[in-house]
C-alpha cells in the first residue's frame, strides 16, 4: 500500500458513492449507462472469485465486498426499482456491450501470466474494465447535456485510473522485479478513453459552464 494506491481506492469508492447518491436520493439514473454498470458487475464478479479463499487483509476484503455489492445494487436499481428505472434512457444507451465480453475473454486466454481458472478470470476482468466505460461515454456523447453528479461520477472513475498509474510508477521504482505488463497496458488504454471527457470537463470547470460534450 502507498499513498497513490490509497488515493486511487478512495477516489474509486467516491465515484460509487456519488452514483449511489444520485440514484438513491434523487431516484434518477438519467445519464447513467446500464450497459457500463453491467460490465462493471461482470468485472468485479470475475476479479474477486478469491474473496472467500485467499485472505489478504481486512481492508482488501471490505473493499471487494463494497465494489461487488454496489455494482450489483446499481444494476438492480436501474433494472428493477419502480421509480429509478423510469428515468433510464433506453433510446440512447444502445451500445452492444456484450460484444466486448467475448473478445476480452478470448484475449485473456491468449495473454495471461498463468493458465489457471482464477488467473484467466482475473486477466479477463482487467481487459474488460479497460473498455467498460465505453457505453457510458457513448451515452454522454449522444445526450450531450450532462448533470453535475453524472459528470463527477465519470471524472472520479477516470481519476481513479490515473492515480493507479502513479501507483504503478511508484512501485516500479521502489519494489524489485515489479513488472505487470498486462495491467499496465490495459490501464493506459482505459485512461486514454477518458482523455476527451477530461478535456471538456476541465473546460466546463474553468469557464464555469455546464458540462456538454460535442456531438
Automatic annotation (TrEMBL):
This is ER lumen protein-retaining receptor. The keyword Transferase does not apply. Belongs to the ERD2 family. It is found in: Endoplasmic reticulum membrane. Its main location: endoplasmic reticulum. The chain crosses the membrane at residues 55-78, 98-115, 121-141, 153-173, 179-202. Pfam families: ER_lumen_recept. It is a multi-pass membrane protein. Keywords: Endoplasmic reticulum, ER-Golgi transport, Membrane, Protein transport, Receptor, Transmembrane, Transmembrane helix, Transport. GO terms for cellular component: endoplasmic reticulum membrane. GO terms for biological process: protein transport; vesicle-mediated transport. It comes from the Eukaryota.
Amino acid at each position: 500500500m502507498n499513498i497513490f494506491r490509497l488515493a486511487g481506492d478512495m477516489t474509486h469508492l467516491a465515484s460509487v458513492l456519488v452514483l449511489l447518491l444520485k440514484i438513491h436520493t434523487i431516484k434518477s439514473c438519467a445519464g447513467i449507462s446500464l450497459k457500463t454498470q453491467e460490465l462493471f458487475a461482470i468485472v468485479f464478479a470475475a476479479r474477486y472469485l478469491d474473496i472467500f479463499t485467499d485472505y489478504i487483509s481486512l481492508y482488501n476484503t471490505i473493499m471487494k465486498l463494497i465494489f461487488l455489492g454496489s455494482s450489483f445494487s446499481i444494476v438492480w436499481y436501474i433494472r428493477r426499482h419502480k421509480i429509478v428505472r423510469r428515468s433510464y434512457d433506453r433510446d440512447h444507451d444502445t451500445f452492444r456491450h456484450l460484444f466486448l465480453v467475448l473478445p476480452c475473454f478470448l484475449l485473456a486466454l491468449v495473454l495471461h501470466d498463468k493458465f489457471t481458472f482464477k488467473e484467466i478470470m482475473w486477466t479477463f476482468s482487467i481487459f474488460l474494465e479497460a473498455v467498460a466505460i465505453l457505453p457510458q461515454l457513448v451515452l454522454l456523447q449522444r445526450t450531450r447535456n450532462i448533470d453535475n453528479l453524472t459528470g463527477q461520477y465519470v471524472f472520479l472513475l477516470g481519476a481513479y485510473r490515473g492515480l493507479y498509474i502513479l501507483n504503478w510508477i511508484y512501485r516500479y521504482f521502489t519494489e524489485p522485479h515489479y513488472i505487470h505488463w498486462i495491467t499496465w497496458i490495459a490501464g493506459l488504454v482505459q485512461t486514454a478513453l477518458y482523455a476527451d471527457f477530461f478535456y471538456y470537463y476541465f473546460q466546463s470547470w474553468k469557464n464555469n459552464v455546464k458540462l456538454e460534450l460535442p456531438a
